[in-house]
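All the exercises in this workshop are built on plain-text protein records. Instead of coordinates, the fold is spelled out as a row of discrete tokens. Once this layout is familiar, the rest of the handout is easier to follow. The record below serves as our worked example for the rest of this section.
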Amino acid sequence: MFAYLKKKLSSKPTPAPDEEYQKAVAEFVGAFEVVFHHDWDYAKTMIGDEEEGCTFLEPGLEDEVDDWGARGALLEKYRALRDLMKKKKIGPQFPFSLERVRELKGRYR
């Protein structure tokens, strides 16, 4: 019993949540859900309008919002979150190695 109390009293306090980071994450998740859940029917028709050699995240379009405001909002929130992560020295945690992604790409060519 005393060991438990001693441990509990000597534990470091939980750090206060970072409001700026929480806001950035919440805004990104909201924008992500709009594109890939709530507006999915339209998103399916629009995915693939990127310039040749570009990606969804870097579409190479002069106007990323034209005809698809949800994409523009998602890209804006994504970039804001990535900038904040960089500022806080937080890197992305990929679900598997990028080398594995490159290997998988070869299957579809």
Q: What stands out?
A: The chain has a mean pLDDT of 85. Residues 74 and 86 are 18 Å apart (CA to CA). Residues 19-38 form the longest helix (20 residues).
